[in-house]
Amino acid sequence: MGYLALGVVVALSAMGCGPEYPNCDNDDDCREAEFCVNGHCQQCRGDDDCPAGQSCDDGRCDPIPGYCQSMSDCGEGETCENNRCTRARTATPTPDPIDQSPPPCQLQTVRFAFDSEELSGSSRDQIEQNARCIRERNIRAVHLAGHCDPRGTEEYNLALGDRRARSVQRYLQSLGVESRVTVSSMGEEMARGIDESGWDQDRRVVFVER
């Protein structure tokens, strides 16, 4: 047998002795870009052996769900962060600061007993609160309107309403209120009560800012 024929026989014999694919002894027994791991040819040993966007799973490079390298790789309403497509976060609007300051004071109505212009203790307390409010808000002028319940003649109620307004005016002035204070009487014109509970609301002096 010639040397050439002998060489072919030897080469064929050597090839026949190696492991049958995909079994392997080393990387040389595997295809290009494959690795011999535990006697078996596979695509990868770990994630570093796989292309970008793929991971090594049981020796095979599989695509990573949601992988991205830029915003164009993600869908509408998504953003690419740390190579993952995630829902875009919308900025939460900052709520307006809550005004913790107390509301400005208001001038309150002063009540009277039946057929009387005398100031009771509660009436004086209310007038004192109104005086503080006038100073606090620097109210320059106040008008006092005296009212009565519907009982009695029109002339009498007009005079009674005037006396009630002037009682409040005098007490305000005694408290040192420097704002201009004017008075008038509505008598029974604005009365709405039909019994004692309603008439109690009619007997009053109303503070009006000017």
Short description:
The protein is an alpha+beta fold. Helix content is 29%, strand content 21%. The protein has helices at 3-17, 121-137, 154-174, 196-202; strands at residues 35-37, 40-42, 54-57, 60-63, 78-81, 84-87, 110-111, 141-147, 180-187, 204-209.
List key phrases describing it.
four-stranded mixed sheet, alpha+beta, 10 strands, 4 helices, 29% helix, 210 residues, 60s Ribosomal Protein L30, Chain: A
What topology emerges from the helices and strands here?
Elements: H1 3-17, E1 35-37, E2 40-42, E3 54-57, E4 60-63, E5 78-81, E6 84-87, E7 110-111, H2 121-137, E8 141-147, H3 154-174, E9 180-187, H4 196-202, E10 204-209
Parallel strand pairs: 8-9
Antiparallel strand pairs: 1-2, 3-4, 5-6, 7-10, 8-10
In the CATH scheme, what's the topology name of the largest domain?
60s Ribosomal Protein L30, Chain: A
In the CATH hierarchy, the architecture of the largest domain is: 2-Layer Sandwich
- The CATH class designation of the largest domain is Alpha Beta
Structural class by SSE content: alpha+beta
